[in-house]
């Protein structure tokens, strides 16, 4: 029987992942804001960028503006909203439990730390999985996404179980649709690696209005990123979490030699949001580091500084200059 997939939120990530699943021939439904739903149903979904062009006509998938309009049962529900909408998404989906198939799972395609903990308050933790994405998506129109950069395969796994059997099919479907994706039993390490990457790059990219590569060209911005990394490693270890490197120095070697070069031209989602006068995900990134550090009685001044500057820009509604 063909697998049924629901994409919750059609931002850049939702459109990008949705395009892969539609291209692989699956039955895909998308829940999005009303204006996006109208355009998707009228003109279809368009993907451009480094993995090639793909257009899914409206009859290839379905788009809805509310879960109330759906009566299907889904094998995979992919949460692709911004992290500041995580609790709303969890509550919304919990009011529509009938949408989740008996063996269905929820996969969080989100930035930041703490999203799974929120979903755990509403759902059995055994069905909650996380995706780590280091692929750059830019939403060029309400129904169009451009894939700008790709640093590594998408990884999908659970913080609560080592069982990867439930997501092996989903990973294959995404890979078949154009973006490499693999299951992992080490998603905590992946998520903290992504936290490091995002916390070092996104705030400064947004504050200074530059792509990632520019931040590595100057000793002043490198100094700030280095100190943010040191604070994160201290906080992470005090809280009992792990990633693939045991020190900031070892991580920064990879960061400057491999990660930034492969994504040098990317404009962070935080910069895109600030430019459009939208709320950012700073609270689930550097804000999460600050929250954990405070619980552990640690001081993280560099994280606090960039956090404060991004919050200032949010309050302006857009760049004031």
Regarding quaternary structure, what we see is single chain
Q: Please tell me the total number of domains.
A: 2
Backbone CA Rg? 19 Å
Average pLDDT metric:
95
- CATH homologous superfamily grouping of the largest domain: NAD(P)-binding Rossmann-like Domain
By CATH, the architecture of the largest domain is named: 3-Layer(aba) Sandwich
Please bin the fraction of helical residues: 40-55%
Proportion of residues in β-strands: 15-25%
Q: What profile does the largest beta sheet have?
A: 8 strands, mixed
The largest sheet has its strands arranged as 5-2-1-6-7-8-11-12
Structural class: alpha/beta
Shape: globular
CATH-derived topology of the largest domain: Rossmann fold
**Which sequence of SSEs, written as H and E, runs from N to C?**
EHEHEEEEHEHEEEEHEHHHHHHH
Total of DSSP H or I helical runs spanning 4+ residues: 12
Low-confidence stretches: none
CATH class of the largest domain: Alpha Beta
Q: Span between N and C termini?
A: 55 Å
Distinctive features:
alpha/beta; Rossmann fold; N-(1-d-carboxylethyl)-l-norvaline Dehydrogenase, domain 2; 2 domains; 8-stranded mixed β-sheet; 4-stranded mixed β-sheet; 12 strands
Break the fold down into its secondary structure elements and pairings.
Layout: E1 4-8, H1 12-23, E2 27-31, H2 34-43, E3 45-49, E4 54-56, E5 62-64, E6 74-79, H3 86-94, E7 100-108, H4 115-120, E8 128-132, E9 135-141, E10 144-150, E11 154-157, H5 168-176, E12 181-183, H6 187-208, H7 212-215, H8 219-238, H9 248-262, H10 269-275, H11 286-295, H12 301-316
Parallel strand pairs: 1-2, 1-6, 2-5, 3-10, 6-7, 7-8, 11-12
Antiparallel strand pairs: 3-4, 8-11, 9-10
Helix pairs in contact: 1-5, 6-8, 6-10, 6-12, 8-9, 11-12
């Amino acid at each position: 029987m063909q697998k049924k997939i629901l994409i919750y939120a059609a931002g850049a990530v939702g459109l990008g992942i949705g395009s892969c699943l539609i291209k692989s021939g699956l039955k895909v439904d998308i829940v999005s804001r009303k204006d996006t739903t109208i355009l998707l149903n009228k003109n279809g979904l368009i993907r451009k960028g480094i993995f090639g062009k793909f257009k899914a006509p409206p009859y290839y998938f379905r788009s809805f503006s509310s879960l109330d309009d759906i009566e299907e049962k889904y094998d995979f529900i992919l949460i692709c909203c911004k992290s500041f909408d995580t609790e709303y998404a969890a509550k919304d989906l919990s009011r529509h439990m009938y949408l989740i198939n008996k063996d269905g799972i929820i996969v969080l395609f989100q930035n930041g730390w703490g999203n799974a903990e929120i979903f755990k308050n509403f759902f059995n933790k055994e069905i909650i999985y996380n995706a780590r994405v280091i692929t750059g998506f830019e939403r060029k129109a309400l129904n169009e996404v451009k894939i700008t950069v790709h640093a590594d395969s998408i990884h999908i796994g659970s913080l609560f179980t080592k069982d990867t059997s439930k997501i092996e099919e989903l990973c294959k479907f995404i890979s078949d649709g154009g973006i490499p994706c693999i299951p992992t039993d080490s998603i905590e390490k992946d998520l903290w690696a992504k936290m490091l990457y995002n916390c070092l790059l996104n705030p400064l990219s947004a504050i200074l209005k530059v792509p990632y590569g520019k931040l590595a060209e100057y000793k002043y911005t490198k100094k700030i990123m280095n100190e943010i990394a040191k604070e994160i490693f201290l906080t992470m270890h005090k809280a009992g979490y792990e990633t693939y490197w045991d020190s900031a120095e070892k991580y920064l070697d990879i960061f400057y030699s491999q990660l930034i070069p492969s994504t040098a031209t990317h404009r962070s989602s935080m910069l895109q949001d600030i430019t459009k006068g939208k709320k950012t995900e700073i609270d689930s990134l550097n804000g999460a580091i600050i929250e954990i550090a405070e619980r552990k009685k640690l001081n993280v001044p560099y994280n606090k500084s960039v956090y404060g500057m991004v919050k200032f820009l949010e309050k302006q509604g857009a760049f004031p200059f």
